[in-house]
Amino acid sequence: MNYFNYVKGELFAEQVSVTELAERFGTPLFIYSHATLERHYKAFDEAFGEYPHRICYSVKANSNIALLQTLKRLGSGFDIVSIGEFERVIKAGGSPKDIIFSGLGKTTDELTQALEANISCFNLESENELYRLKSIADKLGKTATISLRINPDVDPKTHKHITTGKKGNKFGIDIDTAKRLYIAAKDMDNIDIAGVDYHIGSQICKLEPLTQAIDAAVNLILELRDLGINIRHLDVGGGLGIQYKDETPPHPAEYVNAIVERVKSHDIDLVLEPGRAIIGNAGLLVSKVEYLKRGESKNFAVIDAGMNDYIRPCLYEAWTDIDAVDSRIEADDFVCDVVGPICESSDIFAKDRAIKVAEGSYVALRSVGAYGFSMSSNYNTRPRPPEVLVNGDKVSLIRRRETYQDLLGPEYLLDEA
């Protein structure tokens, strides 16, 4: 079910007019649907049935604390990649025991703070990280619970910039090295081996790469158990794709069933870290058309959102559906590139689209809930947009629009000569 629908030609977010939201909060504006967020979380959680599992939402996809709070209330744990994300989870009401700490370059301070807080598990990415964490654990006299992130050398068939499980990627540890490190860690004081972890990429729309990675991880777990290393859980990461255009990713239930089928006879608990698949289609970015610019060979609709607000089309050449918020507008379809105001030629959201727009009208960029606000910036000294969450007919401002004082406040002038 889609909770962003047209009612008599006007786009609504659940029971609230998108036009009214744009006029109330201004544009650009991120709008999220609570019902969509809840439905997508439950699609994963309920697919497991009674099988032992944890859903740990990937905070990097969208880290707004009200959204994290909503997911916590639904029963979610959290996958973090920085202490900043740790602080967000705690502020949102999460417990350290809800948290798995992933990421390639954890600093000594980050490892120390997370260990002192007694987080659930560290997903480690290198031999040096294992020995650094052991040193910290020895110094604190605390036990660190760990998984090693393996690199199974599986091609996820996704964009090269979001591939993370192939040989040559910076992430993870090759399986032979991981086996050696598990054997070494088995006899380490203050290290508790809990699991095996992998994450092969993002926006994956085929089941085969995901199942290849599962099979590689299960084979490693069985080898480790033969060596007396009792692996308790398998963390299969995230990466399941969503529909931006014409993709047909597996349904969460299809994916979960494939995982469970491969592990159910081996007494392995499961951890899943979805991000985009939960929040991606739950968000819109609403923008005002500032100018219609006609040229000799190309027309442009210049909107007030820029690549600083939503960078995916620029960074990944990613398709973004763009719709008129009010389809009743008195305007002909305008074939154009939809572009932002940023001083970069790459500030393009769509090329050669036929869209019904007029100067001053609103457009909605769809499926921007993941890697939208979380990857936004202040480039060109532009304040970042507000975020609102719609739940039925209730509207909550969950982040105000930044002010210029927010941007300039941390900076200092030089003393006078």
Automatic annotation (TrEMBL):
Molecular function GO labels: diaminopimelate decarboxylase activity; pyridoxal phosphate binding
Cofactor(s) this protein cannot do without: pyridoxal 5'-phosphate
Pathways per UniProt: Amino-acid biosynthesis; L-lysine biosynthesis via DAP pathway; L-lysine from DL-2,6-diaminopimelate: step 1/1
Domain (Orn/DAP/Arg decarboxylase 2 N-terminal): residue spans on this chain: 35-279
CDD domains membership: PLPDE_III_DapDC
Catalyzed reactions per annotation: meso-2,6-diaminopimelate + H(+) = L-lysine + CO2
List of residues binding pyridoxal 5'-phosphate: 239, 273-276, 371
Residue positions binding substrate: 276, 312, 316, 344, 371
Signal sequence extent: none
Keywords on record: Amino-acid biosynthesis, Decarboxylase, Lyase, Lysine biosynthesis, Pyridoxal phosphate
Modified residue annotations for N6-(pyridoxal phosphate)lysine: 60
EC top class, as a word: lyase
Record-linked PROSITE patterns: ODR_DC_2_2
Alphabetical list of Gene3D superfamilies matching this protein: Alanine racemase (3.20.20.10), Lyase, Ornithine Decarboxylase, Chain A, domain 1 (2.40.37.10)
Any one GO biological process: lysine biosynthetic process via diaminopimelate
EC number of this enzyme: 4.1.1.20
Active site: 343
Quaternary assembly: Homodimer.
Protein family: Belongs to the Orn/Lys/Arg decarboxylase class-II family. LysA subfamily.
HAMAP family: LysA (MF_02120)
Function, as annotated: Specifically catalyzes the decarboxylation of meso-diaminopimelate (meso-DAP) to L-lysine.
Protein name: Diaminopimelate decarboxylase
Organism, scientific name: Enterovibrio norvegicus
Encoding gene (name): lysA
